[in-house]
Description:
The chain is α+β, with helices and mostly antiparallel strands. The chain folds into 2 domains: 11-203 and 373-433, 3-Layer(bba) Sandwich (FAD/NAD(P)-binding domain); 209-366, no CATH class. It has helices spanning 20-31, 47-51, 65-71, 81-86, 89-98, 118-131, 187-194, 215-218, 265-277, 294-307, 313-316, 323-334, 346-357, 413-433; strands at residues 11-16, 36-39, 58-61, 103-106, 110-113, 135-137, 140-148, 151-158, 161-172, 203-205, 209-211, 223-233, 249-257, 261-263, 282-287, 359-366, 374-376, 384-385, 390-391, 397-399. Strands 1, 2, 6, 7, 8, 9 and 20 form a 7-stranded mixed sheet that branches. A 6-stranded antiparallel barrel has the order 11-14-13-12-15-16. It has a 3-stranded antiparallel sheet with strand order 3-5-4. A hairpin with a 3-residue loop joins strand 4 (103-106) and strand 5. The structure holds flavin-adenine dinucleotide. Flavin-adenine dinucleotide (FAD) is lined by residues 16-22, 39-42, 46, 48-49, 51-53, 57-58, 140-142, 173-175, 179, 182-184, 187, 373-374, 401-402, 412-415, 418.
Amino acid sequence: MSTSNDGIGPADVAVIGAGGAGLLAGIAAAEAGAWTVLYERMKAPAKKVAISGGGRCNFSNTLNPREFVREFGDPKARNLGPSLRALGNDDLTALLERHGVKGACERHYRLYTESGRGQDVVDALVKEFLAKGGTLACNAHVEEIAREGERFVLRGSFDGAEGAREAKAVIVCTGGLSYPQTGSTGDGYTWARTLGHGVTDLKAALVGLTVEEDWPSSLAGTAWPDALCRLWPAEVPGAPPAKRGKPWCEERKEILFTHFGISGPAILDASNAFVRAGVPRAKLTIDFFPETTREQLDTAIRTRFYNHPKRRPSRALEGMLPARLLEAHEKRLFGERPPDANRVTRELRMRLIEWMKDLPLTVTGTRGMKWGEVTLGGIEWADIDTSTMGSRHVPGLFFAGEILDLAGRCGGFNLQAAFSTGYLAGKSAAGFAKPA
Ligand SMILES: Cc1cc2nc3c(=O)[nH]c(=O)nc-3n(C[C@H](O)[C@H](O)[C@H](O)COP(=O)(O)OP(=O)(O)OC[C@H]3O[C@@H](n4cnc5c(N)ncnc54)[C@H](O)[C@@H]3O)c2cc1C
């Protein structure tokens, strides 16, 4: 077993995991003059960045740091101040533009690649890292890290051979537990625990929700672009309907019915509130027409029924909502033999409007780690010095990215957090390994 870096002594900084956090950590450390080696277990770096945002990579957003923390969707985002000051969204955008990757702003503040290729972001970050003099080692699976005297020893499999590598400082950027097919299987949590750090409960977040009702699965693939989704405590079977207080969350975006239940951006964001509540069931209500009052809807429905008096209600309403959704609910709303549109009573219209504005579903769980876009929970912030991203227990050890106890909403928040914490950790680790 080789015990050094090919006989040339320890690296200044070893970064473990070449995802978004690891690449920025490597760039910052190399930029600061540290000999930096970035170890990645997969054949190629940053698979998750490449597939993010549906392959178009929503790499950041245009919010200023204060808005970014406020809109993040996790109170623990307040720990990000120093990281966002070290590398803000404008610094990231400038870095990417230097490599020809332009951002396109969509839906208020989200930054996607203009080219529509997430891989362009990966290629730009790898180029930047190599240009700064960093060394990228893929097929390098670190299995254990140990502090031995003044150095860290990384043991594992490097290009298929068992071995060890040494470094003066180590940055753990191994990501969370979710979407393990991209390489993140939670190795860093084990090392962090062994080295004396707390790790909170870990759960899949930004994830599709399973539901008790079976009609959504019959509509798999049907999307609706603008729904207001509210998540509430589950109703107790047999008990009178609970008086509604404030929902746990309100999310207004696209939804998608699927073979397992419901997904889409509004649901992914709502899933974080469901997972945080730690309950087995919850109630989800959907308003398909958040901009339209019940009175306005009634006028629109009456106009359609007037114009198509002899059609079944679902046919007369075609175009207002997806036909498959209307058909799936027609019997429940209008009875076994739906009347012609001109015979629909006021009472039935009111039932229809209630359904359009407040359709209930019973959430029974999430789709789990395999499909979660992020992991909720991680290394406890109390064990990290947020001004450096360094461990409070082991000098020379740093953490960045999704391994931290942080889970943001959709909108470029998670990637920017990974990039920013990575950059600050890289700069600090270089300062530790090569004091001025
Ligand atoms: C489908 C999907 C879509 C997403 N879309 C968006 C989006 O559009 N915008 C957004 O902001 N966020 C998005 N996210 C979330 C975002 O991608 C992650 O939060 C972010 O990539 C986390 O970065 P990271 O570097 O901390 O971890 P990761 O990207 O998971 O990187 C960790 C790296 O460490 C490597 N590794 C792990 N263990 C070892 C080991 N023992 N030895 C060596 N290497 C190791 C892994 O192979 C991996 O390359 C999405 C996530 C998914 C799954």
